Amino acid sequence: MSAPPRPVPYDPQLLAGLAAFRELVEPFPLRADTILASRAHFAKVMPSLDAAIEGLPVRAEQHRAPGPPGAPEVALTVLRPRDPVHGAPGILGIHGGGLVLGDRFFGAGELAARVVQFGAVAVSVEYRLAPEHPAPAAAEDCYAALVWFARHAAEFGVAPERILVSGASAGGGLAAAVVLMARDRGGPALAGQLLDCPMLDDRNETVSSRQFAGIGVWDRYANAAAWTAALGARRGTESVPAYAAPARAAELAGLPPAFLTVGSAEVFRDETVRYASRIWAAGGRAELHVWSGGYHEFAGTTPEAEVSRSAVAARDSWLHRVFAR
User: Fold this and answer.
1) Confidence at residue 325, expressed as pLDDT on a 0 to 100 scale
2) Is 157 within a domain?
């Protein structure tokens, strides 16, 4: 058997943050037999909603949306500016966690910052987790949340044509799935899709996935464990639907503008690049950024690094342009 390909070096400014991230978030590897322990640890280290929005001119409301047919209601957190503006942009935010971890309060701080920066209204979704709820249950919950948000947009002062879907890691993959559902089901119409280091392909066979086997955060083995939890015996077969793994979509035409961002030193690099390339090949609009030496979710965990500041600036530039259309 051939040796694994040499991994891409990390940006030196990111090394301290990478070590801290591993110690805080991944003190032990995610594997099939550690999912429950990982959930418990994740819940302990993630900040509460109150802590995430403390000191910001943001108010939080709790709502429930009708779930997919035959499924429970979907819990939602709505983050709104204290001084709302009519015709505001809307963001459906989908949390990460490999489809097996986390809740709607994970990432609330970043969503709240966008509420302040853009005068937006953000909705965070509590989707069902695997393996208890196999894919595409999570994506269906997120789509149900989008339908609810679009129907209630006027109540929140949101312009329906200014709603976009956003997510990082598993949230990025679910955001891509929701966009496919919206296209295939005739709406709601979307202004864009923000896919941050998205988890798109269950096959886990790219060069970048092999480069980061046992290396860094969210490595090849964690990725395999998460996809197996979500798909079971279907993982890697031809029976995986696009709403479960968006890289499986046969056609990427007719999608709203996409922003895709990823580090060069992480598992999801190659599938993100390929997804953007396929959008372009279908005549669509996509903006792709691959950040040299970036590990998984580096910009959020090492914000002081120069490459992180550049990544955030690129993302915010795209958001300004999309919301201005």
Assistant:
1) 75
2) yes
Dihedrals phi, psi of 34, to nearest 5 degrees = -120, 10
Distance CA 53, CA 134 (A): 32
CA 88, CA 121: separation in Å to the nearest integer? 7
Contact 296, 266 (CB under 8 A): yes
Summarised one tens digit per residue, pLDDT across range 15-36 is 999 999 999 889 999 999 999 9
Whether 133 maps to a domain, the answer reads yes
pLDDT digits (tens, 9 = 90+) for 115-129: 999 999 999 999 999
Q: How far apart are the C-alpha atoms of 109 and 311, rounded to whole Å?
A: 18
For the whole prediction, is pTM greater than 0.85? yes
In a domain, 288, yes or no: yes
Please check whether residue 317 lies inside any domain of the structure. yes
Token match 């209204």: residue?
121
DSSP H helical ranges for 26-95: 35-45, 49-53
Q: Which domain CATH number covers 264?
A: 3.40.50.1820
